[in-house]
Amino acid sequence: MNYLAHAYLSFNEPHILVGNMISDFVKGRQKSLYAASVQKGIQLHRFIDAFTDDHPVTAKAKQIFRPQYRLYSGPIMDVVYDHFLASDENVFPNDSLLSFTHGVYQTLEEETIHLPQRFLPVLTYMKMENWLYHYRTTDGIYKSLRGLIRRAAFISDSQPALELLLKHYDELRNYYEEFFPAVKQTTKQKLAELLA
Predict the structure, then answer these.
(1) Which residues make Cβ contacts (< 8 Å) with residue 17, sequence separation at least 6?
(2) How far is CA 74 from the centre of its chain?
(3) Angstrom distance (rounded) from CA 123 to CA 189
(4) What is the pLDDT of residues 83-96, one digit of tens each?
(5) What does the domain layout of the chain look like in residue ranges?
(6) Least crowded by CB within 10 Å, which of 9, 15, 78, 171?
(7) Contacts of 39 (CB under 8 A, 6+ apart)
């Protein structure tokens, strides 16, 4: 799952949201430098990632991208899942995604004391271009895929990823619809354990 899913799966807990959003910027023992409540968000992020990577539906979905992108098929699926989440009227009815994304940015800005320095410019661009909202558009997804591929070591062309998404769109949406209720329920249970 990518930024939007991690934000949504924080279930409106501010410090869980912070940890969930910064986890990829916190390596190893650095986690202990953060408040205990933020550490739980980091832990939840890693739980979500492991659950997603190990899920059989994700394994099937990654096969669409694996021949072209090999190990990057997982990160591509993270972006694809966020696209279908952003477009999911059951989760974000009546364009409530827009108010949700503004709430996420506001919470993160109110909690900058807990944000790593390397995350601050990411947050600036995320808010300025409203990444979380634009996951729902083809152009927004293409920008996300382009950014992902640009950071990749051995691949450079993001166009085939978009073409594969469009070609297999219904199949990938079905994978999302099968997978997302499972990750939501399991994450909710894990969060309850962390907060107990």
Answers:
(1) 7, 10, 41, 104, 107, 108
(2) 12
(3) 28
(4) 999 999 999 998 89
(5) 3-195
(6) 171
(7) 19, 31, 32
